[in-house]
Write a structure and sequence with these properties.
heterotrimer; A alpha/beta; B mainly alpha; C mainly alpha; A: alpha/beta; 5-stranded parallel beta sheet; 12 helices; 8 strands; globular; B: mainly alpha
Chain lengths: ~325, ~475, ~80
C-alpha cells in the first residue's frame, strides 16, 4: 500500500517535470537563447545550408545525378562543373550526414529529383559514426515526420530526444520552420544545386589524433542497404565514391578491406588517393577540397563515371539538349 | 553495473520491491536478498573477481574470529599483522605491481642494466582499494575491541559486498555498518524519500556538473603548455568542482540507494568547497577515507612519534598524506599530490592553527571568512592539478603555465552553456552546507508544491544539460 | 593521588599546550570544547601528561578515551598499578 502511494507521488512529480520541460522548450530560442541550453542547440539554418538545400530540392526538377553524404558531398560535387559536361546534378549532402540520414532525405526527394544515378560520397569514417549532428540538423530544419522522429529515437541520445520534442512542439504550434537563410555565411557561399563553395583558400587544420576506429556500424550498413534498395527498386543506379583526402585516414590494409566491403553494396570509385589530386594546394584542410581542387576532382570523376556507367549499365546517362543546360547554367550564375 | 544505467534501474526496482514486500517480515530473507543481489551486482561487471573477493572475505572473516578468541596480546597482534599484510599484498599485487616493475625497469635502465620491459597489465578488480581498506579497518577494530567479530557469514558477506558501496565506497566501519544490519529494518517512508532525494542530487551532480565539465578540463590537460595562465587557473578550479561533483555525486547515489533499503551509510563529503583551511578541507573531503587514514595510520604514527613534538607530528602527517596519494593509484603524480598536501599542512602544524572553529560575528569577521574560503578553494584547486595530470611532465607544464603569462587575459573556456546548472549547483551546495546532504532542507519544506517544483527543476536540468557519454562523434571540418 | 590533584595537573599540561585557560575542567569535557585541542596537539597533550605523571600509555588505551573523566580514570589506574 505504501509502495503504491509512493509510486503515485513519483508520477505526480514526473508530470510536474514534464510540464516544466515543455514550458522551457516553449521559451526557446526566444527569450531563452539556444546556447544557454546545452542539450538543445538546434537553430534553423545552421552550418551547411541544409534549409536552403531542402527547399530547393522540392522545386529543382529531374536530374541525372544526385549526391548524398557529409560535407565531403556538398563541398565536393559542384553542379556547375557537371553542367558543363551536360550532366544535371543536385547535391543533397549535409554536415556530418551518414546513411541513416541520407535515407530520410532520399525518401523525401528521390521521386521529385528522379536521378539516373545516386552517388554516396563516403569515407570509412562515415560508417563508423552515428551522424547525430546531422540528425539534429534535419530536426532543426524540419519538417518533422515519422522517419525523422524514429531516427531521433534510434540514437538513444538526450540531444536528439530534446530536439525531437522541440520540433514536435514548434511544428504543432507554428508549423515547420521557415526562415530567410542568407546565401553567404562566413566564408561559405551557397550555389544553386546544393553546393557550398568555400572561399577560405588553404587552411590545413590538423586531423583529430588519434584517429578513431573505422569499424563500420551495423545500423549504418543496414541503412546503406535500404537506401540502395530504394534506388534499385525504381530502376536507378547507385554508386559509392570515396572522395579525395590529403591525409591517410586509415592504414592501407583497412582501406582495402573497406573498399571490398563497400563493393557488396554498389560499385565503388576510390578517388581518395588519386595521384592527380594529392597536391596540398587543392585542399583547404585534410579532407576538404577548395574550389580549384573541386574543379580537378569533378573533371576526373565525370570521366570515370561515364566509363563505369557505359560498361555497367545499358542505358546511358540522361542527356540534355545544350539549350536546357544553357538555361540551367545561366540560372546558377 | 553503473548506478545510472537501465540495468541498474531494473535491478534495483526488483530488489527494492522484493525487499519491502516478500521479505518484509524476515530479517534472514532480507539479508540473503542483499547478499545475493550484491553478488549479482558485482559479478555483472566481472565474475572473475568474485572469487578473489570470496577468498579474501573468508580469510578476513576467519582472522577476525581468531583475533577475538585469543586472550594473549601477542597472538592477537600476530594474527592482526598477518591479516593486514595479506590484505596489503593482495592490493599491492593487483594495483601496484605493474607500477613498481616499470619504475624498477626504468631506474635499472638508467644504470645501464636493461630489464625486459614487458608491459605489465594486471586487470584491476573494481573497488579493491575500498574493499581492502574496509577489511584492514575491520581487523584493527576487532583487535581494539571497538567492534565484535561478525560470526554470521551472511551478514559478514553482506558487509563485504553490499552493492551500494562495493564499487567506490563509502568505506564503512564495522561498528557503523554491522549494527544497522543486525536490527530489524522497517519501511519508513521518510527515510525512503530522503534516499531518493539524495540519489537525485547525486545523479544531477554526476551527469550535469561532473560530466559536463569533464570535456572542458580534458581539453586543457591534453596540452597545458599551450594555454594562458588565466585558462589554467580557471581550468584548475573547474576540475576541483568536477571531481567533487563526480565523487560526491557517486557517494550520494550510493548512500541514497542504501537509505531506500533502510540502511544508513557514513557521510563522505561535508561541503569541502567551502572549507576554511587545508585541514578543514581534509576533514570535509572523502571523509570515509580521511577518517580511516586518521584513525588507522596517523594516530598510531603520531603516537609512536609523540615524544618528538611538532617534528614528529609533521612526519606523521607527511607519511599519512603520501599514503592518501598512493591510495589513489599507481602513478608518480599521486605521490607528488600526497607530498604537496602534506607540505600544505605543515604551516598549520607550525602555527598551531589546525582547527578553525573560531566563532565570531560582524562584517570584518564575515569578510575574513570569505577570504579564507576563497584562498583555500584556490589553493586546493591548484594542488589538485596533480590529481588530474596524466604524468609528471603534464603536471609540471601545467604549474609552469599557471605562473606564466596571460593571467589577465580572457580564459579560453566556454562556460556559457553550462552557466545555469553550474550556478544552480553551487547555490544549492551553499544552502545545503552542513546538512546530511544538499536536499535535506528541501525535503523538510512544508509546501508540497514548492518541494516538488525543486525536484522538477532538477529533473528538467538533467534533460537539458546532462552529458551523455558514449556518443562521441568526430567533427568533420564542416 | 586524589582525583582533584590529577585534574589540576592535567589542566596545567593543557594550558601549556594550547596556550590559554578558557575551559572548565569537567568530567564530560571533550577535545572539541577546548580551542586548540586538535588531532595534532592531542599527541603533545598525551606526552605532557605522560611526563607529568611519569606513566606510559598504550595506543589502545588512548583510543578508548571518551572525555576528561575517562582520561582522569586512566591516569588514576596507571598510578595505582
Amino acid at each position: 500500500m505504501q509502495l503504491i502511494r509512493a509510486a503515485f507521488r513519483l508520477i505526480l512529480v514526473g508530470s510536474l517535470a514534464v510540464l516544466l520541460y515543455a514550458s522551457t522548450l516553449a521559451l526557446a530560442p526566444r527569450p531563452l537563447p539556444f546556447n544557454l541550453i546545452k542539450n538543445l542547440n538546434v537553430p534553423t539554418g545552421g552550418h551547411g545550408h541544409l534549409y536552403t538545400r531542402m527547399k530547393e530540392a522540392a522545386t529543382y526538377g529531374k536530374v541525372d545525378i544526385l549526391v548524398v553524404g557529409s560535407s565531403l558531398a556538398y563541398r565536393g560535387f559542384d553542379p556547375r562543373i557537371f553542367a558543363a559536361h551536360n550532366i544535371r546534378l543536385f547535391n543533397l549532402g549535409s554536415s556530418n550526414q551518414t546513411p541513416l540520414q541520407s535515407e530520410i532525405l532520399l525518401q523525401r526527394h528521390l521521386d521529385e529529383l528522379d536521378p539516373r544515378l545516386v552517388i554516396f560520397a563516403l569515407q570509412p569514417i562515415s560508417l563508423s559514426v552515428d551522424g547525430l549532428e546531422s540528425t539534429l540538423d534535419l530536426l532543426a530544419n524540419g519538417p518533422l515526420d515519422k522517419q525523422t522522429f524514429d531516427l531521433a529515437m534510434h540514437h538513444e541520445h538526450i540531444k536528439t530526444y530534446n530536439a525531437a520534442a522541440f520540433a514536435a512542439m514548434k511544428q504543432a504550434l507554428e508549423g515547420p520552420p521557415t526562415i530567410d537563410e542568407p546565401v553567404l555565411k562566413g566564408t561559405d557561399t551557397y550555389v544553386k544545386g546544393g553546393f557550398v563553395e568555400q572561399r577560405s583558400g588553404s587552411n590545413h587544420k590538423p586531423l583529430p589524433s588519434p584517429l578513431p576506429s573505422f569499424v563500420p556500424r551495423s545500423d549504418q550498413e543496414k541503412a546503406l542497404e535500404r537506401c540502395i534498395a530504394m534506388i534499385e527498386v525504381r530502376g536507378r543506379k547507385a554508386m559509392i565514391v570515396r572522395t579525395p583526402v590529403l591525409t591517410t585516414y586509415a592504414d592501407p590494409e583497412f582501406d582495402n578491406t573497406f573498399n571490398a566491403r563497400m563493393k557488396r553494396f554498389a560499385p565503388v570509385i576510390d578517388m581518395s588517393k588519386h595521384e592527380l589530386i594529392q597536391d596540398p594546394s587543392y585542399f583547404y584542410d585534410g579532407s576538404h577540397l577548395n574550389q580549384q581542387g573541386v574543379q580537378v576532382f569533378n573533371t576526373i570523376l565525370i570521366q570515370d563515371i561515364k566509363m563505369a556507367l557505359s560498361t555497367e549499365i545499358t542505358s546511358p546517362v540522361r542527356q540534355h539538349s545544350p539549350t536546357v543546360v544553357q538555361t540551367y547554367r545561366t540560372r546558377t550564375h | 553495473m553503473l548506478f545510472l544505467s537501465q540495468e541498474f534501474l531494473l535491478f534495483f526496482l526488483t530488489v527494492f520491491v522484493l525487499y519491502w514486500s516478500v521479505f518484509k517480515n524476515s530479517m534472514n530473507g532480507q539479508d540473503s536478498l542483499l547478499m545475493v543481489s550484491s553478488i549479482i551486482f558485482y559479478g555483472w561487471t566481472d565474475t572473475r573477481f568474485l572469487i578473489l573477493i570470496g577468498i579474501s572475505g573468508t580469510l578476513n572473516y576467519g582472522l577476525a574470529v581468531l583475533i577475538e578468541q585469543n586472550e594473549s596480546d601477542r597472538l592477537r597482534s600476530a594474527w592482526l599483522w598477518t591479516g593486514v599484510i595479506l590484505n596489503i599484498l593482495i592490493l599491492g599485487y593487483f594495483k601496484y605491481f605493474g607500477f613498481f616493475y616499470e619504475s624498477l625497469a626504468c631506474s635499472l635502465e638508467g644504470m645501464g642494466l636493461p630489464l625486459e620491459k614487458r608491459y605489465f597489465k594486471i586487470a584491476l578488480p573494481i573497488g579493491i582499494s575500498f574493499f581492502t581498506f574496509q577489511m584492514i579497518g575491520y581487523l584493527i577494530d576487532v583487535n581494539n575491541g571497538s567492534s565484535v567479530a561478525c560470526r554470521k557469514p551472511i551478514k559478514f558477506f553482506t558487509y563485504v559486498l553490499y552493492f551500494p558501496k562495493i564499487l567506490a565506497g563509502p568505506i564503512e566501519r564495522a561498528q557503523n555498518f554491522l549494527p544497522s544490519i543486525e536490527r530489524v529494518r522497517t519501511y519508513e517512508q521518510e527515510m525512503i524519500s530522503d534516499g531518493m532525494r539524495q540519489f537525485l542530487w547525486g545523479a544531477f551532480a554526476k551527469t550535469v556538473i561532473a560530466d559536463g565539465l569533464s570535456p572542458l578540463v580534458d581539453g586543457i590537460h591534453t596540452d597545458p603548455g599551450a594555454a594562458p595562465a588565466s585558462t589554467l587557473w580557471l581550468g584548475a578550479c573547474l576540475y576541483l568542482i568536477q571531481l567533487y561533483a563526480d565523487f560526491s555525486g557517486y557517494s550520494n547515489m550510493a548512500i541514497g540507494t542504501s537509505k531506500m533499503l533502510g540502511i544508513p551509510l557514513s557521510i563522505n563529503f561535508r561541503s569541502p568547497l567551502f572549507a576554511l583551511n587545508v585541514s578543514d578541507f581534509w576533514r570535509r573531503w572523502h571523509v570515509s577515507l580521511t577518517s580511516w587514514m586518521m584513525d588507522y595510520l596517523f594516530t598510531p604514527l603520531a603516537f609512536m612519534l609523540r615524544q618528538y613534538g611538532r617534528p614528529g607530528a609533521s612526519l606523521a602527517i607527511m607519511v599519512t598524506f603520501l599514503a592518501v596519494g598512493v591510495w589513489h593509484g599507481a602513478n608518480w603524480t599521486f605521490i607528488v599530490f600526497g607530498l604537496i598536501q602534506g607540505l600544505l599542512f605543515l604551516p598549520l602544524v607550525a602555527s598551531g592553527k589546525v582547527n578553525v572553529t573560531r566563532p565570531g560575528t560582524g562584517l570584518v569577521y564575515g569578510a575574513r571568512q570569505i577570504a579564507a574560503g576563497a584562498f583555500t578553494f584556490i589553493l586546493m584547486a591548484a594542488s589538485f592539478v596533480w590529481m588530474r595530470a596524466d604524468s609528471i611532465a603534464v603536471g609540471s607544464s601545467y604549474w609552469k603555465g599557471m605562473v606564466g603569462p596571460g593571467l589577465w587575459t580572457n580564459p579560453s573556456i566556454n562556460l556559457f552553456n553550462m552557466l545555469v546548472p553550474l550556478l544552480f549547483f553551487l547555490l544549492l551546495e551553499w544552502l545545503g552546507r552542513g546538512q546530511d546532504h544538499m536536499l535535506t532542507k528541501v525535503g523538510s519544506l512544508r509546501t508540497t508544491i514548492l518541494r516538488w517544483s525543486i525536484y522538477a527543476v532538477i529533473l528538467v536540468q538533467i534533460a537539458l544539460y546532462s552529458n551523455t557519454q558514449g556518443a562521441t562523434f568526430i567533427y568533420f571540418a564542416f | 593521588m586524589e582525583k582533584n590533584d590529577i585534574a589540576t595537573r592535567i589542566r596545567e599540561v593543557l594550558i601549556a599546550v594550547v596556550g590559554h585557560d578558557r575551559f572548565e575542567m569537567r568530567d564530560d569535557l571533550t577535545a572539541p570544547d577546548v580551542e586548540g585541542w586538535d588531532s595534532l596537539t592531542h599527541m603533545s597533550i598525551i606526552t605532557g601528561i605522560e611526563s607529568a605523571f611519569n606513566v606510559r600509555f598504550k595506543l589502545r588505551e588512548i583510543n578508548k578515551l571518551r572525555n576528561m573523566g575517562t582520561l582522569i580514570e586512566l591516569v588514576q589506574s596507571k598510578l595505582s598499578a
